[in-house]
Design the sequence.
């Protein structure tokens, strides 16, 4: 970190978070809760607020999105922060037909819609256009406020932090 950046962080009064902690490295330190929505968990830099209102500054190395339950350590080693999935507006999609639910997942995936996959339902961020489309297909859609933890996707590093994959499509999509 550049000296100029370190000075700016010290002057801001924010707790600067610089490291992800493995379960074996967790310490008996003050623990702040950091509620983040799914999109915020993908950004590893910038100002955030803990659940109790404490100013936090993420300065984490590039890598995979933050996961609920993951712990972060402050630059001075004095504070731990635990990431939480914050409630956000979602839609739960259900059907009495497993095939109809599978078809919906296929069509949503073809549109690159982030979603949670469950045996009995799909969960995705609220979108009124998608809500109408799903209802027209005969699916039950219920709006809720709930934590959203979408599937990481085919190119995400499974179980690894600090590593990501990129890819290019060799085909086109009709959108």
Sequence:
């Amino acid at each position: 970190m550049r000296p100029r950046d370190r000075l700016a962080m010290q002057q801001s009064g924010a707790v600067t978070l610089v490291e992800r902690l493995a379960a074996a490295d967790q310490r008996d330190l003050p623990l702040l809760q950091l509620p983040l929505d799914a999109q915020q968990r993908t950004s590893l830099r910038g100002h955030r607020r803990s659940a109790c209102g404490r100013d936090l500054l993420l300065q984490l190395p590039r890598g995979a999105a933050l996961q609920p339950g993951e712990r972060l350590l402050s630059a001075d080693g004095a504070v731990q922060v635990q990431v939480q999935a914050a409630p956000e507006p979602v839609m739960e999609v259900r059907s009495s037909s497993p095939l109809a639910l599978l078809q919906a997942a296929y069509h949503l995936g073809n549109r690159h819609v982030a979603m949670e996959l469950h045996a009995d339902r799909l969960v995705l961020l609220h979108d009124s256009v998608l809500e109408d489309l799903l209802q027209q297909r005969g699916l039950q859609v219920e709006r809720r406020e709930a934590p959203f933890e979408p599937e990481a996707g085919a190119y995400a590093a499974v179980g690894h932090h600090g590593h990501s994959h990129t890819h290019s499509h060799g085909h086109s999509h009709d959108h």
User: Anything to note?
Assistant: The chain has two domains: 8-85, 87-147. The beta strands are 15-21, 31-36, 45-49, 55-59, 71-74, 80-85, 87-94, 115-117, 122-125, 140-147. Confidence is low (pLDDT under 50) at residues 1-11, 157-175.
